[in-house]
Amino acid sequence: MSIQTETPQTVKVWDPLVRVFHWSLVVTFFLAFITEDDWMNLHIQAGYAVALLIAFRLVWGVIGTRYARFSQFVKAPSAVFKYLGQMLTLKVPHHLGHNPAAAAMIVSLIVSIIMVSFTGMVIIAAQGQGPLAGTLFAGFNPEWMEEIHEFFANFTLLLVILHVAGVIVSSLLEGENLVKSMINGRKKYHSEGVDK
Amino acid sequence: MNKSLSLWSGSLLLAAILVFSVSAIARAVAAGGLQHTTIFASLGQADQSVPAGLYVNECGSCHMAYPAQLLAPAGWALIMRGLQDHFGENAELDSASQDDILQYLLQMSGQQQGLYRKLGNPPQDPAIRVSEWPAFKQTHAEIPARLVTNNDKVKSFSQCNACHQDAEKGWFDEDHVRIPGATGWDS
Fold it and tell me: How far apart are CA A43 and CA B25, in angstroms?
């Protein structure tokens, strides 16, 4: 990783695929969320887009660039709670990649979105549509599936709100605009960073 | 994995997903995605043909003339062969009318890409009672009995058009529902 010489020093952290993935997910998730069951054709297509993007992220989390890999940022729950405790004291160790709390948020978002996508496809499978039509999932009770689908859709929205709040808090603690980092991929380089 | 190989395969995968998704979303918008299109979409215009008129006159004199596309051909055959005991009533017609109506229903049922397939009713062995269709049960589970079976203005879940005002034209959109006698801020 090359380090730029101008001050403040910034380095490339989020690769272009991570960033395109991130903002595409933002757009498609909200498209699916607002179209819900009144614009079913559009809702289903937006939902497929969300599911495919998550599938891409799972692959990229294994074969991707350094800071895109799950092995680089996913930490044990104890590390997450320790980091959250440090946030309360307003003094956090600097992470160039995702901090442990952000990593927990990413894992939660991915799991929650997988639940939404899967139950969505199960619901339409009961009506003979989608990739799960004709599989054993088509026999699942669609009413129950719809309840779970709605729960996780709303839960994902709650996570998104917490995610944005976390980004704002971290931006203030780190003195860096982290939204901008997800646009241009660059973050300030700290020589004392724990994962540089 | 080799660094540039993974970068290439990741880029191709993401590009393919984005191209697929954008075109699928664009097609959904072009196909009327910005109009309300629930799974129970419109069945189209009311039919003006002679057999359609016969169907609406004969069957529609006692109950709503259900859009033929809602039920698989096998279901219509079952109904039309059992008119002497039609949900407990004798609804027999002269055999010529019966044949003409069945022909009309069979023909219409196959239109709209077999919309009946989306209702979860097995096409080979369909339930002929509307309230037994999986999609029906799914969408009406939260409607309390006091608004339907205990409601003098509705009486039965089989009376689609009591609440779905445009049901005979095939329009079952939830925004077009008005349950008669229901008291609430929007009724």
Answer: 9
Rounded to an integer, the average pLDDT of B144-171 is: 83
Look at chain B and report how many structural domains it folds into.
2
Cα distance between residue A12 and residue A130, in whole Å: 39
Which residue, A20, A24, A42, is CA-closest to A33?
A42
Architecture of domain A20-188: Up-down Bundle (1.20)
Mutate to test the interface with B, among A1, A42, A121 (most CBs of B within 10 A): A42
Output the CA torsion A35→A39→A45→A46 (10° steps): -10
Residue B17 lies in a domain: yes
B170 phi-psi bin (left φ>0, alpha ψ -120 to 50, beta other): left
pTM of the model: 0.67
Mean pLDDT by 10 residues, chain A (196 residues): 59 95 98 84 94 98 95 96 94 92 97 97 84 87 85 98 96 93 92 78
Do residues B25 and B44 share a domain?
A: no
Of A45, A64, A127, the CB nearest to B28: A45
A52/B10 CB distance under 8 A: no
Place of tokens 């009309």: B104
Buried b (16+ CB within 10 A) or exposed e, A93-108: ebbbbbbbbbbbbbbb
Do B80 and B57 have their domain in common? yes
Q: Domain range for residue B100?
A: 36-117
Q: How far apart are CA A176 and CA A162, in angstroms?
A: 19
This complex has an ipTM of 0.86
* B184 part of a folded domain: no
- Nearest Cα of chain A lies from the Cα of B35 at a distance, in angstroms, of 7
The pLDDT, as a whole number, for residue A120 is: 94
